[in-house]
Amino acid sequence: xxxxxxxxxxxxxxxxxxxxxxxxxxxxxxxxxxxxxxxxxxxxxxxxxxxxxxxxxxxxxxxxxxxxxxxxxxxxxxxxxxxxxxxxxxxxxxxxxxxxxxxxxxxxxxxxxxxxxxxxxxxxxxxxxxxxxxxxxxxxxxxxxxxxxxxxxxxxxxxxxxxxxxxxxxxxxxxxxxxxxxxxxxxxxxxxxxxxxxxxxxxxxxxxxxxxxxx
Length: 215
Fold this sequence. Notes:
Blueprint: H1 4-14, H2 19-26, H3 30-37, H4 45-54, H5 59-63, H6 67-116, E1 120-126, E2 132-135, E3 154-157, E4 165-170, E5 176-182, E6 187-189, E7 200-205, E8 208-214
Antiparallel strand pairs: 1-8, 2-7, 3-6, 3-8, 4-5, 4-7
Helix pairs in contact: 2-3
């Protein structure tokens, strides 16, 4: 039975390479080549593959009849397949993790931003040519309420609105506590409004679309 060391020597000599010349191509020492050829030890599997390329012989020819190396190569191939499968699974799980983390981070950023700097907007469509009174609806509620101190208590007639609007604010007893004209793009502070108290906001304007922003 011919061991791999003898086959290395045979193919090296067929290529007319000295041990030193082969060692330089493999980036190993000359003594390593000598130890392989006399059977003192085996080359590493990655070196066996490089040997196959340098000596221009197939792995089958290089390992033929050397059952120890054949077994090691087979085991290494199985390990490589397992490593590739694990790497693929890790990549998939990592992609899912990154995507989920990004989505949660985006949701959390939105929530944190809304908590630190709350705001909301409402669209008011006036269909009459006269100054029609309309109760502003904020997030499905027909009242305005500042629930914490982080609200700036500022009312803004968006610049994209059709024009100016008359704004009247009423308390829970339907008493008017503030009235003012708000031009498109202008804002009005509502410092006199109390926290956690509901107020009705009535808008009067000519026909058009109006956007009211609350900060």
